[in-house]
Amino acid sequence: MAKTKPRIIKTDTEYIYIPGASRERFLTPPFPSIKYLATNNIMMAGLSTWTDGYRIDRYKIYHHLLLYTLGGAGSLKINDGKTVKLKKGDLFIAPYDSNYSYWTDSHWDAAWLHLSADSKWDTLFGTTAHVRKSAWGKEMDRVMQGYIEESDRRRVDSGAALHSYVDLILLYIQREIGGDDPLLADARRTLEGLWSTVQQDLKKTWSVDSLAQFAGMSRSCFHRTVVDLTGSSPMQVINTMRMERAGEMLLYTNYTLSMIAEEIGYETQFSFSKAFKRYSGKSPKEFREEMSK
Questions:
Q1: Domains: count for the chain
Q2: CA quadruple 210, 214, 220, 222: dihedral positive or negative?
Q3: Could you tell me the residue range of the domain that residue 250 belongs to?
């Protein structure tokens, strides 16, 4: 089988060399979606596997760039500075009018987005190109994969699904460059995993010490992190989760109060009823009767 020839793209602002073995999937047709991308200032986007020899040089480029390294490795040079290695989990953020080069001498899996300058993105991108750890790379990869798969289906109703994928892409861009810094995002993810575990076992006797141990933090660091990210203490979060679960069971099951108390970690019906009234302002019985009307 004949080898695919490399492609070379040259303009006044960029040089691109794409080896024949490289593969790129673009977020483009079917036609209902491409307009929605452009309407939201996403000029181009794609998932790529680049092979040995792939290279891009850009000079005073006219768009913003987000470049996620999903696997393999690449090299980057900004403004003729020192070469930086890009590894899985790294994110290169480049505002328009930047000068940079990136390439690989092995293989490199990447997700990338070109966003219009003179748009809502300008203030988020700032003026300096830089590399940092990605906070939302895995999610961006999944949603772009989903977009491409739906695009390939070319169903009559694909437009609605593709619009939803674009909304998620926009959300993750906003979170990535306009929200938490990476360290705070990591802490938020840790807590999300913890809360999911707690939700599955609300009858367990949770304590700040056991929660902190699960999260891999010291007791003081855990308490401070939870307060910073939720506005509540750890045990207040657990109490809210228990009361919300109790409210669901009061509304949607015929469980007795003693059964509900046991399910959410209270030793007696009385202690549960007292806690629920303190939380909701109504006794469990009053809550069930009022919400059932």
A1: 2
A2: negative
A3: 184-291
Q: In terms of C-beta density within 10 A (0-12 exposed, 13-18 middle, 19 or more buried), how is residue 30 classed? A: middle
Write the DSSP assignment of 196-233 as a string of letters: HHHHTTTTS---HHHHHHHHTS-HHHHHHHHHHHHSS-
Q: What is the CATH number of the domain that holds 107?
A: 2.60.120.280
Tens-digit pLDDT profile for residues 49-102: 999 999 999 999 899 999 999 999 999 999 878 899 999 999 999 999 999 999
Same domain, 55 and 164: yes
Answer yes or no: are the C-beta atoms of 69 and 52 closer than 8 Å: no
Measure the CA–CA gap between 30 and 275, rounded to whole angstroms: 54
Averaged pLDDT, 262-272: 95
Calculate the dihedral angle through the C-alpha atoms of 239, 241, 244, 246, rounding to the nearest 10 degrees.
Answer: -70
Measure the CA–CA gap between 59 and 114, rounded to whole angstroms: 15
30 cis-preceded (ω within 30 degrees of 0): yes
Residues 222 and 212 sit within 8 Å (Cβ to Cβ): yes
Q: What is the gyration radius of the CA atoms in the chain, in angstroms?
A: 25
**Token match 């060399």: residue?**
17
Q: Residue 267: which CATH number?
A: 1.10.10.60
Element (H, E) at 120: none
Q: Are 96 and 117 in contact (CB under 8 A)?
A: yes
How far is residue 183 CA from its own chain's centroid?
14
Check whether residue 212 and residue 170 sit in a common domain: no
Say whether both 74 and 130 belong to one domain: yes
Judgement on whether residues 199 and 162 belong to the same structural domain of the protein? no
Contacts of 161 (CB under 8 A, 6+ apart): 150
